[in-house]
Amino acid sequence: MRSSFRFVSVATIAAMLAAVPGSAQRSTGPKERYEMDVATMSGFAAMTAGGGKPGMGSALGMMFGGSPESRVAHTLELRLGSNQAPSSPPVKADHFFLPQAKLGASVPLLPHEPGKRTETEYNEVPKDFERPKGRLLLFWGCGAKAGPGQPVVIDFSKMAAGQMPPNLFTSTVPRVREVMASNSASYADWPNRKSSKPVPAGSSLLGAHRVASNVGPEINFTLAQDYMPGLNASTTQQADGSVMIRWNQIAPATGYVAWAFGGMDRGGGNADMVWWTSASAREFGGGLWEWLPPATVANLVAKKIVMPPAQTSCEIPAEAKKASGEMMFGNLNAFGPEANFSYPPKPAGNAVWNIDWTAKVRFRSQTSLMIGADFGGMGGSSRGGSEAPAEPEKKKKCKGPLGIPLPTC
């Protein structure tokens, strides 16, 4: 299941601009593109930090086993793409950090091994996908009561074998990733098969960064933005049957989006499953699961698809909670700032800008939402602190919408 949104690389855009007659300034390149995804995870979401890939696949697979530690964890995803072949195969690269990053002198970026999942598959249903049965009920919007036309009901028993529901995932919200193996002559990333260590507590990314490789010029940039603060979210059942979600406002956040699944505690393969999102329109998936540029987020806030940065609460409608049964599982995503770098500096006037490299650093913070379940007395809260409650009793695993495994229930 791939997003229908088509992406255009920075290199392609630069080439298009260079070909436009009379454009103010022409450019070539970049020869190399670097992308660095910086995430803060709190609550149950912190349990997978350092081991999982971002995207829909990992979002739906969060929270397997372990204890519901109330803590903040950080993750990094590093990707290097070049339009040049390596000077001496295979592709090799290293990202060098300052000591405060606590990641050693550097981490190695390596090319994909044959058969490894690529970035185009991160938003796909896992290979152990089981064809869903029963129905999927879609709700959206913040409020005590569901809006008109809700829920949209998808009956899987009426669908052809293996067919996915049409228009289930958004085509309005892009899934933005400019550096991919598919648009690069040479590609390497981290974590990888040989290096995949968690980011240590107290790590800081402030200061100088250097990326050296055998596929292009050295990349150097300095970060003034560090990991975003952790989200502290709580959920409260209201007298009218709705569920209030509250969270702390994070200064660097550009907007928030929440989603939740329900019905996984009912068992029996024909049970109704529920999927709710905070968007004011029927918008599921896409970039709402991941990182989005501040300008894109601002546009989505104006359209009420993303909640504004000053908002700190949202209600799950009573109808969605009632249809979900006892327990719901979800996520709160805070989109963050973005830092962009390029070399050499843009020349003045109409001189051609021959770009050697670009680097983009994206930030976000997210936390999990547990509604109606008691995990070690934690209930529906997800707090970014340091104290870890007792490990909960192991329970059976559940299946969420589309048959994808969800946390124990």
Automatic annotation (TrEMBL):
Domain of life from the UniProt record: Bacteria
Species in which this protein is naturally found: Sphingopyxis jiangsuensis
Stretch list, region Disordered: 374-409
Composition bias type Gly residues, residue spans: 374-383
Record's keyword terms, sorted: Signal
The protein's name in its UniProt record: Uncharacterized protein
Residue ranges with Low complexity bias: 400-409
Signal peptide: 1-26
